[in-house]
Design goal:
Elements lengths: L1 H32 L4 H6 L7 H25 L5 H23 L1
Helix pairs in contact: 1-3, 1-4, 3-4
Keywords: Membrane, Transmembrane, Transmembrane helix
Amino acid sequence: MGKKNDEAFAIVMGAMAFLALEVMVYYGLVTWLIPTDPEVEAAGGAVVRNWNKVMYFILAYMTILVASLLVASSMVPRQFRRHVLFWFYLSLPTMIVLLFVAFN
């Protein structure tokens, strides 16, 4: 019975940590990347207007994600590392959703 409680607790704590990390990363990257000088926006000239911002967003997001994966996997006990990988794999499609939300 104790093992099931530990696993449920690990899932709940992982979900809370996942949501907190995603919210912090999203707001951090949006406040860092989205505001630009209106003159630069008016100049345009690129195939995709926000191409540099999108690439910086993806690069920064992946860097933060891999760093948090390394820290979390070294801190949790061995039996809960699969939960860390689950949240890591879940954050990859979440990045696409965050890109659409941030740049639309």
